[in-house]
Specification:
Order of helices and strands of chain A: EEEEEEEEEEE
Helix content of chain B: under 10%
Oligomer: heterodimer
Largest interface: A-B, 23 and 25 residues
Number of helices of chain A: 0
Number of helices of chain B: 0
Order of helices and strands of chain B: EEEEEEEEEEE
Distance between the termini of chain A: 37 Å
Number of strands of chain A: 11
Structural class of chain B: mainly beta
Helix content of chain A: under 10%
Strand content of chain A: over 45%
Largest sheet of chain B: 7 strands, mixed
Shape of chain B: globular
Radius of gyration of chain B: 14 Å
Shape of chain A: globular
C-alpha cells in the first residue's frame, strides 16, 4: 500500500457544485494531516491543517477518519479559482532529527471548475 | 511575517554543467529547511533537510548536495548535472520546536537539463 494515496482525477465540476476528495494513508501512527493546494507550475500552498477529527474554513471542510485511515476534503460552492491540484500530506512521525519532521506528500488530485 | 525566496526562477543547463540554487528565509530564526524535487507527473520527493547551520541530512543518494552556510540560507548544488535532474526544485521552511508540522514553500526553480 502506498504511503499516501489519492485519486489523480481530474474532477471536472460546474461552478457552484460541491466536490469531495479522499486520501488514504498507510501509517496508522500518523498524527497530523494537511491539505495543500498547488496551482499549475507554482509551489504548493497550505490550505488546511487537520490535527483532530476535522477542520472547517469557509467553504472548505477537512475530515479525518483514523479508524479507516483516510482524510477527506470537501469544497462547497466551487469557484473557478478553486481549479488546482490538491495535495494530501501526512506526517508519518518518522522523525528526521530533533525538531524536524518529514511530511509525506500524495501525488495530488486535479480539480477543474467549469463555468 | 515570514517570506521565503528562491532563485533563479527558471534555469536551462547542459548535461555535465554545475548547479547552484539558493533559498533564503526572512522573518524567522533557526528554521528547519528542506529541499524537494517534483518531477513531471510525480509527487514531491524530499532531497535534503537541515535543522541548523552546517547540519545537512540526505534522503536520497544522488549527484546533488546541499549546504547551509547561514541560519536562513540553504543552497542546493551539483558538480555535474544529469538529464534526470530536470524538475521543479522547491525549498521549504518550518518552525523549529513549535509542535506544529506545517511547511511553507518558496516559489521554486524550474530546472531543465538539456
Amino acid at each position: 500500500r502506498k504511503e499516501v494515496e489519492q485519486d489523480p482525477g481530474p474532477f471536472n465540476v460546474p461552478e457552484g457544485a460541491t466536490v469531495a476528495f479522499n486520501c488514504t494513508y498507510s501509517n496508522s501512527a500518523s498524527q497530523s494531516f494537511f491539505w495543500y493546494r498547488q496551482d499549475c507550475r507554482k509551489e504548493p500552498k497550505l490550505l488546511m491543517s487537520v490535527y483532530s477529527s476535522g477542520n472547517e474554513d469557509g467553504r472548505f471542510t477537512a475530515q479525518l477518519n483514523r479508524a479507516s485511515q483516510y482524510i477527506s476534503l470537501l469544497i462547497r460552492d466551487s469557484k473557478l479559482s478553486d481549479s488546482a491540484t490538491y495535495l494530501c500530506v501526512v506526517n508519518p512521525l518518522s522523525r528526521l532529527g530533533a525538531g524536524s519532521y518529514q511530511l509525506t506528500f500524495g501525488k495530488g488530485t486535479k480539480l477543474s471548475v467549469i463555468p | 511575517s515570514q517570506t521565503i525566496h528562491q532563485w533563479p526562477a527558471t534555469l536551462v543547463q547542459p548535461v555535465g554543467s554545475p548547479l547552484s540554487l539558493e533559498c533564503t528565509v526572512e522573518g524567522t530564526s533557526n528554521p528547519n529547511l528542506y529541499w524537494y524535487r517534483q518531477a513531471a507527473g510525480r509527487g514531491l520527493q524530499l532531497l535534503f533537510y537541515s535543522v541548523g547551520i552546517g547540519q545537512i541530512s540526505s534522503e536520497v543518494p544522488q549527484n546533488l548536495s546541499a549546504s547551509r552556510p547561514q541560519d536562513r540560507q540553504f543552497i542546493l548544488s551539483s558538480k555535474k548535472l544529469l538529464l534526470s535532474d530536470s524538475g521543479f526544485y522547491l525549498c521549504a521552511w518550518a518552525s523549529f520546536g513549535t509542535g506544529t508540522d506545517e511547511q511553507y514553500f518558496g516559489p521554486g526553480t524550474r530546472l531543465t537539463v538539456t
